[in-house]
Amino acid sequence: MASIAVKELCKTYKGAAEATLKGLTFTFPEGKIGGLLGPNGAGKTTTISILCGLVRADSGEVMIHGLPQDAGHREDIKKIIGIVPQQIALYPQLSAVENLTYFGNLYGLKGKALFNRIMHYLEVFGLEKAAYKEIHKYSGGMKRRANIIAAILHEPDLLILDEPTAGVDVQSRSMILQFLRRYNEQGASILYTSHLLEEAQSLCDEVVIMDEGKMILQGKPEQMINELPECRNLEDVFLHYTGHALRD
Amino acid sequence: MLRLLATIRKEWQLLLRDKTGLTLLFVMPVVLITVMALIQDAPFKDYQDVKFDILTVDNDHGRLGKYIREGLASGGQFNIIDTLEGQAVTEKQARELVNSGRYKISIIVPTGSTAAIVSNANRIVNEITQRMGMSVSLPVKKEADSLNVVIYFDPAAKKAFKGAIHQALDNFLTQVETDMLLDRIRQQLRNKDVQAQPADTLPIRLQAVGLKEHATGNSKQLDVVSNSVQHNVPAWSIFAMFFIVIPIAGNMIREREDGSLLRMKLIPGSYLLILAGKMLFFVGICLLQFYLMMLVGIYAMPLLDLPKLVMGHDQAAALLVASAIGLAATAYGILIGTLFKTPNQALNFGAISIVILSAVGGIWIPLEVMPANMQVIGRLSPLSWGLDAINDIYLRNGDIGLVWKNVLRLVLTGGVMLAVAGFVEKRRMN
Lengths: 248, 430
Description:
Chain A contains nine helices and ten strands. With 248 residues, chain A is an alpha/beta fold. The radius of gyration of chain A is 18 Å and the shape is globular. The termini of chain A are far apart. Chain B has 430 residues and is mostly helical. Chain B folds into two domains: 2-44 and 228-429, no CATH class; 52-192, abc type-2 transporter like fold (3-Layer(aba) Sandwich). Chain B has 16 helices and six strands. In chain B, β3 and β4 (87-88) form a beta hairpin. Chain B starts with a helix and ends with a helix. Chain A binds chain B through residues 14, 52-56, 75-76, 78-79, 81, 83, 85-94, 98, 101-103, 105-108, 110, 134, 150-151, and chain B through 2-3, 5-7, 9-10, 13-14, 17-18, 255, 257-260, 262-269, 274, 429-430.
């Protein structure tokens, strides 16, 4: 079964001169790490917002683990997905434990079980010593790691990450990628967006390159590179299909 | 339930760490009500407790001058001053001292004014007795005098103050003239009845209908006198409760900016429950603010030589009103937090709009003293509904029957603001 299936997705925001999504279609298999890649303005964030149910598409179909993303299934889908937004979606004035307890409670988790799970993940992400430190006192990398924990407390089957390693140091990036691989090995599907194509090449089983609201290419990174003799890596493939023109 | 309680706990944790917010919610209102009560204490006392010095120049040395001096002194509101440095005050001195503002008022009783009153009374008695066929001729002046008791007011004196003094003096003059007339009639009747003993007095009671103040409320206790504390403590507490708009709007915009709102919406379950938790928490904070201010009114104000706050009889109704005010204030904060995109926009608009709503709503000065058009506008302000309802309970000893309309207005307004915020948020998603 497909983890994510998107068919002919269209979206035009009110007042916008041009459509953001123009019939986007792609599929990611379950249990794999998928990459959604594209230049700025390609429509990645809108696609993720539609996948999560935050934004409604004008037309097209979205299926998450076999469930249609519509009003009747939105709550069921929320239960099986975890989202790591690009922003640090945590309260800066609260400590990691306080933030994670609050979001855990919203997921229906509570008591000792929740506390143990929080402490476990803080340890996994190397934040156990800063557990009671306020988030605004964290470094950029620590914030990114705490941001991921908030999305996996309920241990979702599908984890969607929007540029999870933006602005972090090499050590933090390495540990985040290691964790994603381990989490995937436990059976979870992962959809990931990034501008760091080297990272995507090493992490993703399959990538979708999109531009101007449409899917340009989908496949395994090695396969894409091999199909174009002049390309040595995923970045070359990306530039081959999306061009060198600067984007706003 | 877990979502609700978790949200209340989270808001509590956030507020505890927000030192500026805590100061704004609890310290600023205490300072505000104290300063305002102290500043406005004197104006409120103008016609209640303050004693005024009145310079009197009695050129008459008769019954009228004595009556005016005794009458004014008996009210307890005036100190009669007729000598300065051991010398009788002159008219010129009095005029200059009042004009310079050292005294608010001076009364000059002209020479011969008692004689003029006596002559007028005699003339009336002569007329009456002649028409009754009696031959009585009391001495009268050939021409009726035209004398005036002169009043000098400090040019800065208020119109209401002048009116009150005019009325009081007019009453004294009427009283003296009536007394003189009755005295003459009594004398003539005694002369006609030769059997009567000289000491015999004829009881003539003029006041068949008197004046007595009664309570307007259900309680037999007289209504509480409106004073600086009775006005300022509830009024500025309501103002402070509405200032909760600032932390709520700031909190909501920060949640939107840092993505916590996004995360909350991505979590299964109703966002309305999270919003309800937020509202419950802030309504609770409003109530805490309100009762903290009332405690200041009861226990701290008397320490500053101000009157003690009186809270009326129906505390359940007061709690209901305070909750309704808290609900409207919280809903307004949520609306502002939803409509505006940056904390600066929200904070500026929120603060200025509350100042305007409070100014037109009778928080600064009572609605009754505003022009008619402003009163109509003022009665549309939720702050005026809140203050009206609190005054109904505190000043008029009212109960739920007297305040339910204002409570309903506050709750409905809160509901409408929440509905608009919900609509805007839903539109934003698309």
